[in-house]
DNA sequence: AACGCGACCAACCGCTCATTA
DNA sequence: TTAATGAGCGGTTGGTCGCGT
């Protein structure tokens, strides 16, 4: 069964937002906060109508006359609220109206950070945006698609041209060609998973609960790839809420030169099991590959790797 | 001035995941 | 357990603008 559409598209505005719509949405969210997007347009309309009524009463009280028609003609509420899909409202707020959004050009530092994070995370724009305060995933995605991506590809082409000229020996293209046509751009493609809990095995790891770095054997998601988390540990005896954005593995790893790591890891003469960044100890890798945590068709253990960076917050003992 | 073209970016769309009843 | 719903994500589209011819 397919899911119902987020709203009826009939009679809704589409395309660019007007200043009046922005104001209505902003006023509503300032009043009620974010969330419940599906019902927001209707509720925003009710709020607008409430404002109209209050203003009318106020001015009637002040001037002892009926100025309601003046107010309705002069404001932008119109008494009909937002003729927008809730999803559209959410997008408008998150990408444009939020007060903490940073305007202006992306700095060189931000550029460098985006490139490094993209190399690490692939097209996971929301995660990348999470490391760039004030920037939205949409903005970064656009910036990548229009500017950075082209530049990076250009530089890679230059590099590969140089390498070819330095190493003129011909190789069998079937052996050297990556499986994926874009694998030369080798980004770590992961399946996005939200991570709200982690199951921690105290027998294997006798670290303090406040340990911020997950240890080998820590299953970081309870997603579908984990067939039976109870087999791995006992969540009731030792389950931790993992809120790992604050933990920020990315920050730690930002100091690494990932191109070197992933170039090594993607060398075609390595077996899939050995295509793993050297920064992870063997013990950790064994634990990853023994269980169901890692999808077997993946060359690297980036499934778990990305899960570490998936959610926000900190480790908390339950 | 008119036109074509590419770059940029806001907005849309379809999908997946998490939560809830 | 399952279906419905809410929310979020990434890919894509289409309008606008600036620049070159």
TrEMBL record:
Compositionally biased spans, kind Basic and acidic residues: 169-183, 205-214
Subcellular location: Nucleus
GO cellular component: nucleus
Spans annotated as Disordered: 159-188, 202-227
Domain of life: Eukaryota
Keyword Hydrolase included in the entry's annotation: no
Record's keyword terms, sorted: Activator, DNA-binding, Nucleus, Repeat, Transcription, Transcription regulation
Domain (HTH myb-type): residue spans on this chain: 98-152
Chief place of localization: nucleus
Coiled-coil region(s): none
Classification via Pfam families: Myb_DNA-binding (PF00249)
The keyword Repeat belongs to this UniProt entry's keyword annotation: yes
Domain Myb-like as annotated: residue spans: 9-97, 98-148
UniProt-recorded Gene Ontology molecular function terms: DNA binding
Protein name, UniProt field: Uncharacterized protein
């Amino acid at each position: 069964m397919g899911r119902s559409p987020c709203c009826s598209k009939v009679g809704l505005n589409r395309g660019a937002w007007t200043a009046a719509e922005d104001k209505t949405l902003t006023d509503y969210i300032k009043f009620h906060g974010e969330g419940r997007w599906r019902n927001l347009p209707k509720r925003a309309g009710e709020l607008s109508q409430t404002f109209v009524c209050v203003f009318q009463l106020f001015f009637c009280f002040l001037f002892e006359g009926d100025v309601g028609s003046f107010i309705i003609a002069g404001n932008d509420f119109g008494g009909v609220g937002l003729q927008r899909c809730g999803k559209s409202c959410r997008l408008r707020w998150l990408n444009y109206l939020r007060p903490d959004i940073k305007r202006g050009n992306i700095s060189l530092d931000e550029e460098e950070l985006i490139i490094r994070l993209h190399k690490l995370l692939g097209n996971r724009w929301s995660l990348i945006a999470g490391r760039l305060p004030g920037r939205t995933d949409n903005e970064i995605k656009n910036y990548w698609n229009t500017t950075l991506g082209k530049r990076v590809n250009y530089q890679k082409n230059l590099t590969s041209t140089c390498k070819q000229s330095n190493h003129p020996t011909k190789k069998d293209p079937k052996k050297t060609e990556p499986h994926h046509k874009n694998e030369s751009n080798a980004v770590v493609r992961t399946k996005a998973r939200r991570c709200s809990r982690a199951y921690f095995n105290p027998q294997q790891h006798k670290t303090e609960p406040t340990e911020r770095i997950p240890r080998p054997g820590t299953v970081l998601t309870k997603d579908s790839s984990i067939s039976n988390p109870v087999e791995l540990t006992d969540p009731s005896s030792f389950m931790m809420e993992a809120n790992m954005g604050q933990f920020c593995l990315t920050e730690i790893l930002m100091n690494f030169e990932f191109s070197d790591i992933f170039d090594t890891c993607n060398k075609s003469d390595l077996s899939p099991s050995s295509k793993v960044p050297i920064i992870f100890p063997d013990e950790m890798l064994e634990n990853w590959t023994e269980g169901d945590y890692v999808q077997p068709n993946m060359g690297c253990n980036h499934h778990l790797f990305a899960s570490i960076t998936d959610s926000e917050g900190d480790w908390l003992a339950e």
